[in-house]
Design brief:
Length: about 220
């Protein structure tokens, strides 16, 4: 445990992502142990392996830190989320991708008189959410198949629970550029979401607008 914590501290140190040799030296752990621990942390989403054999902070660790400090997000996108909420009057979510789930790290409540069950730090399945489906639509087909091998559990009667239904929906997401959650994660709640891509074009997060079905029609939301 102590070695893992030292390695996490080394990965999160300024100037990252860091190479294996640098992490090994900073954490004072043997190279073989560092490599093994990094592989485990990567599999769990706490560390992310970058190009060139470097390691950076993973989405799960970012989600935990956001939960601790009250949902702060990178300053560069904070104003975008604020503007989105002010322009639409709807609830805005920012969530990070980690394995088979997304983790909500920012929620801006809308102007409408309702509250959804989402909260900062909440982990949700990819296949039931607009953000999650927008992320899946940007991933390679083989990776999507791996992510859904454990099944597609239903959260509501509207949840897409078969690979065929999900893939058909993902095709629509790719064609129009955004995903729609039509009461698939929470009854009475409708969301529209788009993926946030990193410098390599890989989906690392997503942003969504959320409302309730009886207040905002689908056509109005997508417009």
């Amino acid at each position: 445990m102590e070695k893992s914590l030292r390695i996490l501290e080394a990965v999160a140190a300024p100037g990252g992502p860091h190479r294996l040799t640098g992490i090994t030296k900073a954490a004072a752990v043997s190279k073989s142990s560092t490599y093994r621990i990094l592989a485990s942390l990567s599999a769990q989403g706490f560390v992310r392996q970058e190009a060139g054999g470097r390691y950076g902070v993973g989405p799960r660790l970012r989600g935990l830190s956001a939960q601790v400090i009250g949902g702060a997000e990178p300053a560069s996108i904070g104003h975008v989320l604020d503007e989105l909420q002010q322009t639409t009057g709807l609830t805005v979510h920012l969530a990070l991708h980690s394995g088979e789930t997304i983790t909500c790290i920012r929620k801006l409540e809308g102007d409408q008189p309702f509250r959804t069950a989402s909260r900062i730090g909440l982990r949700m399945p990819l296949h039931t959410t607009a953000i999650g489906k927008s992320i899946l639509a940007h991933l390679p087909a083989e990776e999507v198949r791996t992510l859904i091998t454990g099944g597609l559990p239903a959260r509501t009667p509207q949840t897409l629970t078969t690979p065929e239904a999900l893939e058909a929906d993902l095709e629509s997401v790719r064609a129009r550029g955004f995903a729609i959650d039509e009461e698939e994660n929470e009854p009475g709640v409708r969301c529209i979401g788009a993926a946030v891509l990193d410098h390599a074009g890989r989906p690392v997060a997503g942003v969504s607008l959320t409302t309730v079905t009886f207040l905002v029609p689908r056509d109005q939301l997508t417009s």
